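Hi Q.,

Before the meeting this afternoon, I wanted you to have the nickel (II) ion prediction in hand. No need to reply - just skim if you have a minute. The sequence and ligand are here:
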Amino acid sequence: MSHHLTRFGVAVPENLLSKFDRLIKEKGYGNRSKALCDLIRQKIVEQDWNLSDKETVGTITIVYNHSFREIADTLNHLQHHYYSQIISNLHVHLDLHNCLEVLVVKGKVKNIKKISDRLMATKGVKQASLCMAGTGKEL
Ligand code: NI
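Predicted structure with the ligand bound:
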């Protein structure tokens, strides 16, 4: 990836720009350039997640009650089934019953979404979310 910088002029409605400036100040950006680059990168990553054969990475976070044996077994089975896509995981015992698990997934968008859907649909999973990240290679 080239890191050569290009300057370009953009015409933006005044009120939109002042809102943007307020927003990026709140978020701690030192200047507009980094904020704008981040927005563009975010859009590119979002777009990539619409391409089913695109190779990418992400994380799936799930919260469940481990006391129900069935859930723990199903989750374990699913993770073994998709061992080539689930490249790492983190398990945190939140309290006596609840567990939080973060799975790092790598592979085609369609496969990652399938794993995420199956985990979310597992009976007893209280909460699940997919964080659609990117490999960073093309950004
Ligand atoms: Ni646990």
